[in-house]
Design a protein that fits this description.
Layout: H1 4-17, E1 26-31, E2 34-41, H2 44-56, E3 62-69, H3 79-92, E4 101-106, E5 109-114, H4 119-125
Parallel strand pairs: 2-3
Antiparallel strand pairs: 1-2, 4-5
Amino acid sequence: MKSNLQLQQRVAEALSWEPSVDASHIGVAASDGVVTLTGQVPSFVERLEAERVAKRVAGVKAIANDLEVRLPGSSARTDTDIAAAAIRVLEWDAQVPHQNLKIRVSNGWLTLEGKAQWQFCSECAV
């Protein structure tokens, strides 16, 4: 088993080699196989990609993704903007029973609530 310092270094190295992640603003801590990512990234995609990269490192048992997403100035969206965009996207997809869905947005996180008649409809909504 790798020591905490070795695991921390391996994850930090993996992040620095990943071209889709700017590791310069990501902090890594490790304790007994639990890796914590801290800092700021410019998009949710980069946040998820950093987590994916960290999970691939041997010895990582769990990830605590505490990365904060700070969208560039003109890209920032309010919860209202996100909710309105989600409604439009769901209405445009014929396989999604948008009439049965409720959307909740809080601090940029979108949650869909409701029921779908078929499993594939539920999967399309996600």
